[in-house]
UniProtKB/TrEMBL annotation:
Highest taxon, organism lineage: Archaea
UniProt EC number: 7.6.2.8
Protein name per the record: Cobalamin import ATP-binding protein BtuD
Domain ABC transporter per the UniProt entry, residue ranges: 6-241
Organism name: Halarchaeum grantii
Catalytic reaction(s) noted: an R-cob(III)alamin(out) + ATP + H2O = an R-cob(III)alamin(in) + ADP + phosphate + H(+)
Keywords of this entry: ATP-binding, Nucleotide-binding, Translocase, Transport
SUPFAM superfamilies in alphabetical order: P-loop containing nucleoside triphosphate hydrolases (SSF52540)
Listed transmembrane segments: none
Length: 421
């Protein structure tokens, strides 16, 4: 097989008066799956079309699988690069099988299947994309998602070392999205190279080896998903306020776009843990408060949320008690805060110092959670009772209102009754 490497050197592409791609340098090694991401109009389709040789660059060079795609014949390019375009309409009323067989064109003068190798390639491509059952139907009669799979089948039938895909999952249901990307992964693991424009950042992070983030025609980031999908880079490229966390099932980065922060003012310290504070952290941050949290064990679910939301956290190593120095840091945060909120926390001796620090807050909100374990020590129970006696005990739904109330800020739900202790 030819080397399925892609080399882009100092690429510039103008469309009309607009410079769409400018100064792009990138190499994609054989056997990699690269996700092209970026906001609408960033130049993803333009870059893919330039890689496929269907769009001429204004300057720079593209080599795909040992071929200068600008200078080579369409047939030579077609034997190396297959393209799955976005929203293509097929001009004539071909059958699905005819469309898939078009993938064999670089090997013949006609798109008709002419030998056993063609038939096998077409059959296999249709099976792998689950379109065999539509083989005889007119391409005009299949749904948008089915058509997209037919176009993927056509690209597979082309049997090229390089695959370029423009939004291959855009009109697919979740099951076919996963099947399509699993299939691309399989092909890549078999030695092909794939570059796909993908809008869904979570899917891109889950399936691609690397992400190339295009922004304003240039490369803002290129590397493993966890290095490229960072809140600052998403802010710069998408102009989005986004939180990046690890997906609880796949472990890969997942991006949650957040609304612009509101104009609430005040400092709020949260004492949480085990995921009990996650929603409140989000709500407080989005409202615009200056939020901190702790003490928390490093890697705790609330610590992950705090990290994703850029909320400073006081932490201790996992499975360690809060020591005096850490308790001091919590106390400092509590005294700087206008309001301290305690969510459902670990009532144990190891965490007593945190509860005691929180109990000294000027304004304290205690969110009703699970009752503490029956076996806690008398000291821990005393800290817990003191906390509840000093604070205003509210339900989780009323926590945000209670903070606003404590700050005398306006709140849309102020008239809702609060479960005072
Ligand atoms: N033929 C053209 N003439 C002028 N401008 C064009 C032409 N084709 C594309 N553009 C512009 O080039 C820019 C990049 O378009 P492109 O389709 O490559 O973006 P994209 O990243 O694929 O966007 P999307 O996420 O919306 O699919 C856009 O601003 C687009 O309007």
């Amino acid at each position: 097989m030819t080397d399925a490497r892609i080399d882009v050197e100092d690429l510039r592409v103008d469309r009309g008066d607009l410079t769409v791609i400018d100064g792009v340098d990138a190499t994609v090694e054989r056997g990699r799956f690269v996700g092209l991401i970026g906001p609408n109009g960033a130049g993803k389709t333009t870059l893919l079309r330039t890689l496929a040789g269907t769009l001429a660059p204004t300057a720079g060079r593209v080599r795909v699988a040992d071929l200068d795609v600008q200078r080579a014949s369409a047939r030579d390019v077609g034997r190396r690069v297959a393209v799955v375009p976005q929203n293509t309409t097929v001009a004539f009323d071909f059958t699905v099988r005819d469309v898939v067989a078009m993938g064999r064109m670089p090997y013949h003068s006609m798109f008709k299947e002419t030998d056993d190798a063609d038939r096998r390639a077409v059959d296999t491509a249709m099976e792998r994309t689950s379109v065999t059952q539509f083989a005889k139907r007119s391409i005009d009669s299949v749904s948008g998602g089915e058509r997209q799979r037919v176009l993927l089948a056509r690209a597979l039938a082309q049997e090229t070392p390089v695959l370029l895909l423009d939004e291959p999952t855009a009109s697919l249901d979740i099951d076919h999205q996963i099947h399509t990307l699993e299939l691309v992964r399989e092909l890549v693991e078999g030695g092909k190279t794939a570059v796909a424009a993908i809008h869904d950042l979570d899917l891109a992070a889950r399936y691609c080896d690397d992400l190339l983030l295009l922004s304003d025609g240039g490369v803002l980031g290129y590397g493993p998903p966890e290095e490229v999908l960072t809140a600052p880079q998403l802010a710069e490229s998408f102009d989005a306020n986004a939180a990046v966390t690890g997906d609880t099932v796949t472990g890969t980065p997942t991006v949650t776009a957040l609304p612009d922060a509101g104009d609430a003012e005040g400092r709020v310290h949260v004492v949480g843990g085990g995921g009990s504070a996650g929603r409140l952290l989000y709500a407080l941050t989005v409202a615009g408060y200056d939020v901190s949290i702790g003490a928390l064990p490093e890697g705790d679910a609330d610590h992950e949320t705090a990290r994703a939301l850029d909320v400073p956290a006081v932490t201790v190593p996992p499975y360690t008690a809060v020591d005096a120095a850490t308790a001091e840091r919590v106390a400092a945060r509590v005294s700087e805060a206008d309001v301290t909120v305690v969510t459902d926390v670990d009532v144990s001796d190891g965490n007593r110092r945190t509860l005691d620090a929180a109990a000294r807050a000027d304004a304290l909100v205690v969110v009703e959670g699970r009752p503490p374990d029956e076996r806690i020590t008398d000291d821990a129970r005393e800290s817990y009772e003191r906390l509840r006696a000093r604070g205003r005990v509210v339900t989780p739904e009323n926590a945000l209102d209670a903070v606003a109330d404590a700050l005398d800020g306006p709140t849309p739900n102020q008239r809702r009754p609060m479960a005072d202790d």
